[in-house]
Amino acid sequence: MHGLRWIADGEYADHRLAGDGPLGEIGNAVHYLVGDPVRQTFDDFVALGRALRENGRMPVMRPLLEVAGLRLLQWQAAPRALVSHEVVPFRPHRGVLLIVEEPTDGRPDRWLEWLHAEHYPALLAVPGTAGAWTFGPTNAWDPLPADGGPTRSTSPSSISTTTRWPRRRPWRRLSKNAGDQPPCARCSPGRCGP
């Protein structure tokens, strides 16, 4: 298991590209990568959390927006990152640009194709972007490790992302019932083709 927590406080909230409604209140995001045996690892993790809480060792809990066990659908690295896509979250970085979205017109096939064929290549070409990971299947959480720090990377990255959303656009609540769709026509879960 590998865990990271990213906190957006102080000036970071002013650099958000979008995030009204419930997502506008996000102050931190926690990211755990869990390997096999996933079920046993998860059960042990929950038991440890319970024991820590019962013994007064758990930090103050903030309100939760969503807790989900999402699978990794696609991952890519920018060539200048000098690491493979599997290594992107583990390499030193200054922060992430977290994109939380889902398609609004039914099945995600066309949207995921667009992410793969157009959006990710454009985003990975922005200086300061090290890589992109997509989690799902019904909602995508895209942490983009940033070499230049989140506030420096947000401005150039916004060139690639503002075509998707005007600044401060309200978000639609994420659905948890869209089913387990494959990531896109070229990709199988966990592997994204060229």
From TrEMBL:
Protein name: Uncharacterized protein
Top-rank taxon: Bacteria
Basic residues bias: start-end ranges: 165-175
Region described as Disordered: 141-194
Amino acid composition bias (Low complexity), ranges on this chain: 150-164
